[in-house]
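[Meeting: bench + compute handoff]

Bench side (C.D.) handed over the final construct sequence. Compute side (W.E.) agreed to return the predicted structure before the next meeting so the bench team could plan truncations. Sequence as handed over:
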Amino acid sequence: MVTISDLRDKSGFADVVAERIWRAFWKDEGYPLELLTGLVRQSFGSEPIPTAFVAHEGECFVGAVSVIANDEERRPQYTPWVAALWVEPEYRQKGIGAALVERATEFAFATGAQRVYLLSRERRRAYYEGLGWAVLEADVLEPGLHVLIKDAGEGI
């Protein structure tokens, strides 16, 4: 059975979370893995944001998602963000990604946020729209990159 836990409670997964996020989103941009490791470890702080959630079957890593203050520096007015969703390939298409996004979104709303943001490429846009997210800005920073939103009280 897959469980979703706060990374603070499952700190042993921090390195694998950093590696997967780095490989999926940062490696090709030239950023070092150590940068991601440091960013993931910020989730261990006492403040609610940043926070990471990890999906796992016992001690087997399944996936992760983060809630961060800002995922797009050119949009500092938008906060908080659900970011860096990752599900291991063998666990995909089983609702785990949706459950991680839901958990992160609920957490962001519990911090008092009335709106939560998410940055998505075109190939994932329909996925997030299917989870109830709406496009706020299309082709915002480059063609095919969109800012999506979910407002509190809209149901998750």
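W.E. noted at the follow-up: The two ends are 22 Å apart (CA to CA). C.D. will use this when planning the next construct.
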